[in-house]
Design a protein that fits this description.
single chain, about 260 residues, alpha/beta, 3 domains, 5-stranded mixed sheet, two-stranded antiparallel sheet, globular
């Protein structure tokens, strides 16, 4: 499942809240920038670029630290491209959703001979949960924050979801439960969220698992289409499905047309 894509969706839906969390101050202006950069364009689903007054904020969401090319080199590459294009200072932050294995080193700089490039790494498992529990825009990330009692934290998150206004609650609840699936057993999520605050959108997690199985059997593209088809049936918006699955709006609209002749 593309948890990185879900984080990107949230950051682009609530850019001011994410920028305030990362920078520590609320920006005067905020704009979501395109993720395709010139010169042999590169595009990454988990990347979000936000332009504040006089600064570019580059957010990179990752479930795993290990990548190819390595993360430090990727960030240096992005920095050069962003600075060339916008000629502004660039703040780069990798938001690591899960802790890596003990033997994995998490570097905060690219170093080679006389070249050194620094960036920030936010480890979600070290973050104070209160920051996320008290902000609906950040609430889906709360399940990944610091705790000595994961079940208690999940219950706290569910309580905060229940307090959200009825119009916004189903969508936020779906995102919360999707993100919780990265860390918790889906049966535990179902048990905690079943008490009437929303339809059990943990079914989305099961849809993703089924879609991944279809993807393995029939190819990734068909697997994504199967996921999108089932999420349409569950009532998720076309825009949200596009962001999470990586399919185009047109592809999802075609699926919707075939499902509703």
């Amino acid at each position: 499942m593309s948890f990185d894509n879900l984080c990107k969706l949230l950051a682009e839906k609530h850019p001011r809240r994410f920028a305030t969390w990362i920078l520590g101050t609320e920006p005067d202006t905020i704009e979501v920038l395109k993720t395709e950069l010139s010169i042999e364009p590169i595009r990454a689903d988990s990347v979000t670029f936000l332009q504040t007054s006089g600064r570019i904020l580059h957010l990179e969401f990752q479930t795993q630290w290990t990548s190819n090319p390595p993360m430090p080199l990727r960030l240096l590459d992005y920095w050069v491209r962003l600075h060339r294009l916008y000629r502004s200072p660039v703040t780069q932050v990798v938001v690591l959703l899960l802790p890596p294995s003990e033997e994995t080193a998490i570097e905060t700089a690219f170093e080679l001979e006389s070249t050194r490039h620094e960036y920030q790494v936010v480890k979600m498992w070290e973050q104070d949960p209160e920051t996320f529990l008290n902000d609906p825009a950040l609430l889906p990330l709360a399940t990944l924050t610091r705790t000595q009692n994961p079940t208690q934290l999940l219950n706290q998150v569910a309580q905060h979801v229940a307090e959200i206004e009825a119009d916004d609650r189903p969508e936020i609840s779906a995102y919360v439960q999707l993100m919780a699936g990265l860390k918790y057993d889906k049966n535990e999520v179902r048990r905690i969220f079943r008490e009437g605050i929303m339809r059990e959108s943990v079914i989305y997690q099961e849809i993703w698992q089924e879609g991944e199985q279809v993807g393995e059997a029939r190819g990734e593209a068909r697997g994504r289409l199967e996921v999108a088809r089932n999420l349409l049936l569950e009532g998720m918006t076309i825009d949200a499905i596009a962001r999470v699955t990586g399919l185009s709006i047109e592809q999802i609209q075609q699926l919707q047309t075939t499902q509703n002749p």
